[in-house]
Specification:
By secondary structure, the chain is α+β, with helices and mostly antiparallel strands. It has 17 helices and 18 strands. Among the domains are: about 90 residues, DNA polymerase, domain 1; about 120 residues, Uridine Diphospho-n-acetylenolpyruvylglucosamine Reductase, domain 3 (2-Layer Sandwich); about 100 residues, 2-Layer Sandwich (Enolase-like, domain 1). Helix 2 crosses helix 5 and helix 16 packs antiparallel against helix 17. Bound molecules: flavin-adenine dinucleotide and FE2/S2 (inorganic) cluster (2 copies).
Length: about 450
């Protein structure tokens, strides 16, 4: 039995945990405000809010694509659809959409309303830039984005006096008509809900964000035994520990991207990880899922390879540690045995004299996987010569690849070295022709991106 609150109503359901929330909302609950289009996380029409209890009892709301979200994952949560925002009057977001003529056919509008409402509830800073980032997964095919941005800008102006901390913002958002009054009681109502523990059998499929799984095999998962990592609050942490960051296996890309330790030690990642999918997916997708999925173009895997990350793997009551560089064994094959779980990712802080950079080329800037992506960690000694060089490359091999550029140690990281490293990188890979580009294009692209690592402004 799954228990959650859908808008105002407590839902107790025997539906299978692998049923996607979009189907439950539309077909079981007959709430048709949430729209169905791509069913692959690509359009944002199905966006809903998922509110999860924080350790302090308050509720953290995130906008998510309901087409890739199994209902087992919202057990114990508050799910909000556009019907849950309805009252006698339009909400502030809805009003500003009307005033700015930001809706034409209206198909995308519920998703946009939910993404902007989620932004009001969870963004650390209610800035226009952050509002636009929050909308990066919502596609509109007829209004035009200028009007939608106009509504977002007006929203940020109206909320400029709201408290900066999302945990303290709810009373102002209720008073300002952003969310209805009943949101005030949700923390207490969620505290009284019983959430079932997740399946833990050896054969249970581990569902982290589900953003790969529910694109790849939704039918199989419907009847499968599923282990939801969102229920493993013990795996939801990011902490600095000596010379490393320790990131739990359930941490989402968005929480990682915006976390204080990442901002402090790897400030460029805040922008770099905006290139991973879109906010409604990053709010669910995890770093560990990106690694275990073992796609040759996985952005987080490429970044973490260059950063010399290690994995802590749990299974059979034991833990072992493995370098990420040895984890990928072949196309979509990893060193994970049946029943094992990546419980932690260990990321060494940048050594003295080191810098990091990430480059990605895809057909569109956001919501697109890479044709080629690559990251660099370059360490120079006090004499200015390279003492360590790690360059990863995606889209050019069956696995996320760490290039062997050891021969460049001892050289100055100047334009001549950049050109030589680019040539060496091109020579080291054998990409294949596919939908994202020809083998020749990808080889050349990798060379240009490696050169850009040396020449660009790297953090
Ligand atoms: C529209 C769209 C756009 C996308 N854009 C990008 C992009 O730009 N860049 C990119 O890199 N990816 C992209 N992806 C792919 C996907 O979002 C990422 O790979 C994501 O990080 C996967 O994480 P997840 O938590 O959702 O994984 P899940 O789907 O939950 O799991 C993926 C696999 O890993 C296993 N698994 C998950 N966590 C663990 C764990 N801790 N231990 C052991 N096994 C585990 C699961 O069993 C499953 O086999 C996109 C996907 C979609 C649908
Ligand atoms: S239906 Fe397109 S993102 Fe869900
Ligand atoms: S208003 Fe028609 S798709 Fe956005």
């Amino acid at each position: 039995m799954l228990n959650f609150i859908l808008n105002k109503e407590v839902v107790r359901t025997e539906e299978r945990p692998g049923m996607v929330l979009l189907e439950f909302i539309r077909d079981v609950k007959c709430l048709s405000g949430t729209k169905e289009a791509c069913r692959e996380g690509e359009c944002g029409a199905c966006t809903v809010l998922v509110g999860r209890r924080r350790a302090d009892g308050s509720v953290s709301y995130k906008a998510c694509a309901s087409c890739l979200l199994p209902i087992g994952d919202v057990d114990g949560c508050h799910v909000v659809t556009v019907e849950g925002l309805s009252g006698p009057e339009l909400t502030l977001v809805q009003r500003l959409i009307v005033e700015n003529s930001a809706s034409q056919c209206g198909f995308c509008t519920p998703g946009i309303v939910l993404s902007l409402t989620g932004f009001c509830l969870c963004a650390e800073k209610l800035s226009f830039e952050a509002a636009v980032d929050a909308l990066d997964g919502n596609i509109c095919r007829c209004t035009g984005y200028a009007a939608v941005r106009g509504a977002a800008r007006a929203l940020c102006e109206r909320l400029s006096a709201a408290p900066s901390s999302p945990e303290k913002r709810l009373p102002e958002l209720i008073a300002g008509g952003v969310v209805p009054e009943y949101f005030r009681d949700i923390p207490a109502r969620l505290a009284g809900l019983e959430a079932a523990p997740s399946a833990a059998g050896k054969d249970a499929v581990i569902v982290a964000g589900g953003t790969d799984l529910f694109v790849q095999k939704p039918e199989q998962l419907l009847d499968g035994e599923l282990c939801f990592l969102s229920k493993r609050s013990d795996l939801d942490y990011i902490r600095e520990d000596g010379g490393v960051l320790r990131v739990g296996g359930a941490v989402t890309i968005e929480d990682f991207r915006l976390s204080a330790p990442v901002r402090k030690h790897f400030p460029a990642l805040e922008k770099d990880l905006l290139l991973h999918s879109s906010a409604i997916l990053r709010n669910k997708a995890t770093l560990a899922g990106n690694i275990v999925n073992a796609s040759p173009i996985a952005d987080a895997a490429i970044i973490l390879l260059a950063l010399d990350a290690r994995l802590v793997i749990e299974g059979g009551g034991k833990k072992r540690e493995a370098p990420l560089s040895k984890f990928f064994l072949g196309y979509r094959k990893t060193g994970l045995a049946c029943g094992e779980l990546v419980c932690e990712i260990v990321i060494p802080l940048l050594p003295r004299g080191a810098r990091y950079n990430f480059e990605k080329v895809s057909n569109r800037t956001t919501l697109d996987i890479a044709a080629v992506n690559t990251a660099l960690r370059l360490t120079a000694g006090p004499d200015g010569v390279i003492s360590d060089l790690r360059v990863s490359a995606g889209g050019v091999a069956p696995v996320p690849l760490l290039l062997d550029l050891g021969a460049f140690k001892g050289r100055r990281p100047d334009a001549e070295t950049a050109k030589a490293a680019a040539a060496a990188s091109e020579a080291a890979v054998k990409p294949i022709d596919d939908i994202r580009g020809s083998a020749e294009y990808k080889k050349l692209l990798l060379g240009r991106l490696v050169e850009a690592h040396f020449n660009g402004e790297a953090a």
